[in-house]
Backbone:
């Protein structure tokens, strides 16, 4: 039995002013939609944002611009370097996002035109947006280390963007002679994935211990301390003889550990004020970083090379209508991690959906958890819960979070780390 | 008839989310570890569709230290009673 259609007056009244404006816009476009969101970047930030805007409001059109057709995750890429899993097992596709109604464009965004609310793609297309979410990840400061450039990154892989670089570095490790030295250079903060270099050293040490036991890992570190340091060192002592003459891992820190130059031909790193030379058989340079190119080019980054944002909505502090999330954004004290990118993306999606519906964005909430494998069955973690304080700045909830207990069940933490990876990948891409 | 359907669909998508806005906001943050909609693969437990009382009492027990944990004890300390109640409602009422 049909109910009589609502009168036009009742229908329009129920929409409210914002609804009317949007209806007018969409009628002008000839489609029934609450607005168009364009997302630049298909990593943990961009993919999560695209998916969750669709989940929160299926009446919003979402287009994701990402040149790669498949995405190799940085999380778990260390595990590939250690031989714990292979590259295909950490490679994600965008089929899941397509199922959620995200329109995928595999092209590169070249220019953002904030005044026109549009972006241009390398292939020539122009995309209009009502709200733009930019999640471009990182770029490297190629000039920061003499002798390190886009040209030498094949001989001295950074593997700080996963995929081909991961495979290259793994091949070098496998080919290395027993008794060789693997050098990892760790940069000063801020950089993507604070514990990354130390998990990398750990899983490589595990690989060397089993396959090339006379070899060593040498970390040349610009910093004097690192995240989860006590836990890593306790694990290294237990598993890799750290602190003994037979230690598989060595850590040179502070000014002495600051790498100023590298020689790709001899795989030598020059560090410290006295320009000490360290010759390696494999030299993994993790260079200093900054926000991805498109963000800097569009005027979204400040002098630091990273993008200031409103913490509540992730809207750029420098350009209205554009939101920046993930590693490219400045969101201290939250670290630059895939977990934070995923968490932030949901807060951003919620805010963008609210704004397109003419509502005030709600109270945000974030979590970060960083799992690291010190060994394949030895996991450690650091966690934090975040909220917006009275000044509108994100802060860590006092009394919450923190690192694993010293007597933690590290086998269980390792199992959780592996489960976490599967779950965050499903949460982001499936 | 079409007008009625459109009207219903154009109303905010938020109406009727158990646990309200804050339940969903915190709930989706939990998904990074517990899986999308709280459906986990591997060692981390699923929390999708668990009874609200169970989620609530577990979170409170982790928070007070009554229940030992590897990580949930640290995370639960970040939430108030109201937030825990909202999270519980959110996951308990998620459709399959």
Residues:
């Amino acid at each position: 039995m049909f109910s009589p259609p609502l009168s036009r007056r009742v229908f329009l009244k129920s929409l409210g002013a914002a609804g009317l404006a949007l209806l007018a816009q969409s009628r002008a476009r000839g489609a029934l939609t609450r607005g168009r969101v364009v997302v630049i970047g298909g990593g943990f930030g961009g993919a999560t944002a695209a998916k969750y805007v669709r989940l929160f409001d299926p009446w919003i059109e979402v287009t994701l611009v990402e040149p790669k057709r498949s995405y190799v995750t940085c999380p778990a890429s260390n595990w590939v370097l250690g031989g714990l899993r292979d590259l295909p097992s950490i490679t994600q596709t965008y089929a899941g996002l397509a199922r959620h109604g995200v329109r995928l464009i595999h092209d590169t965004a070249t220019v953002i035109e904030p005044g026109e609310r549009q972006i241009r793609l390398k292939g020539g297309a122009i995309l209009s947006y009502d709200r733009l979410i930019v999640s471009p990840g990182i770029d490297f400061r190629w000039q920061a280390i003499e002798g390190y450039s886009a040209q030498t990154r094949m001989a001295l892989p950074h593997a700080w963007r996963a995929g081909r670089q991961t495979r290259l570095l793994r091949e070098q490790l496998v080919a290395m002679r027993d008794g060789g030295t693997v050098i990892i250079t760790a940069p000063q903060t801020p950089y993507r994935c604070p514990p990354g270099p130390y998990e990398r050293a750990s899983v490589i040490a595990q690989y060397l211990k089993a396959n090339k036991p006379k070899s060593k890992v040498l970390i040349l570190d610009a910093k004097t301390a690192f995240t989860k340091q006590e836990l890593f060192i306790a694990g290294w002592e237990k598993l890799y003889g750290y602190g003994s003459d037979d230690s598989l891992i060595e850590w040179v820190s502070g000014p002495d550990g600051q790498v100023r130059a590298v020689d790709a031909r001899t795989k030598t790193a020059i560090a410290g004020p006295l320009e000490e030379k360290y010759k390696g058989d494999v030299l993994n340079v993790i260079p200093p970083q900054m926000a991805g190119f498109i963000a800097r080019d569009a005027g979204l980054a400040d002098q630091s090379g990273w993008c200031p944002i409103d913490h509540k909505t992730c809207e750029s502090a420098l350009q209205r209508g554009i939101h920046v999330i993930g590693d490219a954004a400045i969101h201290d004290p939250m670290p630059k991690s895939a977990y934070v990118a995923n968490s932030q993306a949901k807060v951003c999606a919620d805010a963008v959906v609210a704004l397109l519906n003419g509502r005030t964005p709600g109270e945000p909430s974030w979590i970060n958890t960083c799992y690291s494998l010190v060994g394949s069955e030895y996991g450690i973690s650091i966690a934090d819960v975040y909220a917006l304080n009275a000044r509108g700045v994100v802060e860590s909830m006092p009394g919450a979070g923190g690192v694993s207990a010293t007597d933690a069940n590290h086998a269980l933490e390792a199992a959780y780390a592996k489960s976490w990876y599967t779950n965050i990948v499903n949460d982001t891409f499936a | 008839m079409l007008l009625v359907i459109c009207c219903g669909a154009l109303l905010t998508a938020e109406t009727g989310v158990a646990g309200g806005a804050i339940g969903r906001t915190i709930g989706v943050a939990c998904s990074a570890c517990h899986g999308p909609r709280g459906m986990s693969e591997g060692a981390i437990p699923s929390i999708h569709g668990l009874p609200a009382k169970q989620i609530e009492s577990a979170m409170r027990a982790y928070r007070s230290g009554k229940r030992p944990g590897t990580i949930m004890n640290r995370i639960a300390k970040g939430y108030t009673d109201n937030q825990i109640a909202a999270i519980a409602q959110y996951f308990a009422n998620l459709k399959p």
Remarks:
- The mean pLDDT of chain A is 94.
- The longest strand of chain A covers residues 378-388.
